[in-house]
Design brief:
Number of helices: 11
Helix content: 40-55%
Shape: extended
CATH class of the largest domain: Mainly Alpha
CATH architecture of the largest domain: Orthogonal Bundle
Order of helices and strands: EEHHEEEHEEEEEHHHHHHHHE
CATH superfamily of the largest domain: Trigger factor, C-terminal domain
Distance between the termini: 50 Å
Radius of gyration: 35 Å
Number of strands: 11
Largest sheet: 5 strands, antiparallel
């Protein structure tokens, strides 16, 4: 076998291969013998039909098998001969294959890039300062307070903004009932803007037990295009009025939320939870900034095939999420067109960063231990609420464990690089976008 390696472009290589006639003949012979042992031909016992008869009858059937066997064997030998490490499936081009003749074919592949780490220390990286203020604590307290809020019947006979109106309603367009436009004992908070613009405002001043006609128009950009922009009339009956009853923020309230002695203990717990969450977020953002800087400071060409495959993976993930949100095929196409450049950049960065992380892991001899995996899965269990046993079962799968190991290696590598970074701590408002 003869082979020649040709550089087509930066990472693209073409291997031209010549398989000698004797190898071609033996491969044909093997294919024919396999058929000879299996087929029944009239006039001959099974497996005893003469080879010339087999060749005449089954030549067209063996060609594809012969080509596959010749290409597979010779291609692998050529990779070893030229020390090629391909990252893409080969694009095969070949001439006709005939017994007694050389078989010529070529395989074009992209190879793994050589990552030269030129700068991995002294990187200038911004890091967000931890800042947990009273406003954040109060926002969560307010959410807790709202969650304990109940609706109680009001003694007031006239509906006002902020009240909960218990209504019966039915909508009509051009005198015909509006599909899905009917409800009974429906709780509507006046001022919440749950209904079509203008509907809630027209209910203010209604008395309990009274009826009112409400005329509004569907917005021009309404999601149901068949009624978008059309006027609609509702018959509304006010059954009763309710008010929100919100508990006071005091020690008694804290005890209803959990095992807290007083309001101050609840606030302390909220603050600690925020600090833990913010610490994790800031650390993740900091690592991303280090990774972006490493990619920028250590440029290299990336295989187009891998970038294309990664882009397709990102696109499929995005499509799945958008379909779950009820978006149409047209919406997906529009999104893909609008964000095409961002998808390309994200895919390229993911491939680049993967190579950089692996090169650093090799340079610094970073390994993953069972203890690393256990700690990571315990953290996942705490964050997600999924049991450790379930996570262990999931990450026993080879591909899942491989992804877990990469995450661990990436964190270890970036934490090492962080020790030699020039870090500038700044307020969140002063953080620069990653370049």
């Amino acid at each position: 076998m003869k082979s020649n390696l040709e550089k087509i472009s930066g990472l693209e290589r073409k291997i031209s291969i010549v398989v000698p006639p004797e190898t071609v003949n033996s491969t044909f012979e093997k294919a024919y013998k396999g058929i000879q042992s299996q087929v029944n031909i009239p006039g001959f016992r099974k497996g005893k039909a003469p080879m010339p008869v087999i060749k005449q009858k089954y030549k067209g059937h063996v060609i594809s098998d012969v080509v596959n066997d010749l290409v597979k064997d010779a291609y692998l030998k050529a990779l070893i001969e030229h020390a090629i490490d391909p990252v893409s499936y080969p694009q095969i081009a070949f001439d006709n294959v005939e017994e007694g003749q050389e078989f010529l074919f070529s395989a074009t592949v992209e190879i793994r890039p050589n990552v030269e780490l030129k700068k991995i220390s002294g990187l200038k990286i911004q890091k967000e300062k931890m800042a947990v203020g009273e406003e954040q604590v109060n926002d969560i307290l307010k959410n807790l307070q709202d969650s304990k809020t109940t609706n109680v019947d009001s003694a007031r006979p006239v509906l006002a903004s902020g009240d909960i109106a218990m209504i019966d309603f039915e909508g009509f367009i051009d005198g015909e009932p509006l599909a899905g436009g009917k409800g009974e004992n429906y709780p509507l908070e006046i001022g919440s803007n749950q209904f079509i613009p203008g509907f809630e405002e027209q209910l203010v001043g209604m008395s309990v037990g009274s009826d009112r006609k409400v005329s509004v128009k569907f917005p021009d950009d309404y999601h149901a295009t068949d009624i978008a922009g059309k006027p609609v009339e509702f018959n509304v009956k006010l059954r009763k009025i309710q008010e929100k009853q919100t508990p006071d923020l005091n020690d008694e309230f804290a005890k209803t939320v959990g095992t807290y002695e007083n309001l101050e203990a609840l606030k302390t717990n909220i603050r600690e939870s925020i600090e833990k969450r913010e610490s994790t977020r800031i650390a993740e953002d900091f690592r991303k900034r280090i990774l972006r800087a490493l990619v920028n400071e250590n440029p290299f060409e990336v295989p187009k095939t891998q970038v294309s495959e990664q882009r397709e993976t990102l696109l499929k993930d995005m499509q799945s999420r958008m379909q779950n949100q009820g978006l149409t095929e047209a919406d997906l196409k529009e999104y893909e067109t609008k964000w095409a450049t961002e998808l390309d950049d994200a895919a390229k960065f993911m491939i680049q960063s993967g190579y950089v992380v692996n090169a650093l892991a090799k340079l610094k001899d970073v390994k993953v231990t069972e203890d690393d995996r256990t700690q990571k899965l315990r953290a996942y269990a705490e964050e997600s609420g999924i049991s450790l046993e379930q996570l262990n079962q999931f990450y026993k799968k080879e591909d899942s464990q491989s992804r877990l190991d990469y995450q661990i290696i990436e964190e270890k590598v970036l934490d090492m690089v962080a020790q030699d970074c020039k870090i500038e701590e700044v307020d969140k408002s002063k953080l620069k976008d990653e370049a």
